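Each letter names a residue; structure tokens follow underneath. Both lines appear below:
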Amino acid sequence: GFNIGRPSLKIKNKRTEDDIHHGNGTQQAFYSDPSVLYISLHRYDNGNFFPGSGAPEEVQGNRCSVQCGWRSVLGSSLCRTVVMPIAHEFSPDVVLVSAGFDAVEGHLSPLGGYSVTARCFGHLTRQLMTLAGGRVVLALEGGHDLTAICDASEACVSALLSVELQPLDEAVLQQKPNINAVTTLEKVIEIQSKHWSCVQRFATGLGRSLREAQAGETEEAETVSAMALLSVGAEQAQAAAAREHSPR
């Protein structure tokens, strides 16, 4: 961890990469430090995209290195099924983000090749703010298209300032991961479930859209709530029956 203020004060950190290239330098710096959870979201293409590192199998022995190497995967799906569940289980004290925007729409394949919207970066930032009591630091990093950088940065800063974000387009909410995306998610979850029990519940239903996933989570929450009410009702009924038949 980092020594903050005095040597005896150690802070657990979660560090995420938000560039389209694997953060190999950051990974190497913290690879042997179990107090730092390093998560990298990057383009991998089976090692054929620069710098060629960041395979899902690159997990240090103390589990605190999570590689989300995209081939073609929705950022919202990765965050919902892998990034946020693991981050919440780790429970960091502060979140540091290498905030690069090569993945924003407008970057051609050699420099990016993906089409993540600026709004999406804002909503992903808002999710990160549910960690560490909202202690999130974004350090501007990659990006080659000035307009894309400006739009994505504005969305992220708006999230940090708790400004109401523009909603995601319905087409984005309804979009389902394609077969390559599902394969990537399956691989990452298979590896990370050995270290983080929280991701196991997402091993099924990976092909759902964000809208379908939200509906499923709402239904699951309602079921749990109903079961809890039934349990309380049964206990109250048993207690009432016991009082009725007890000697006076």
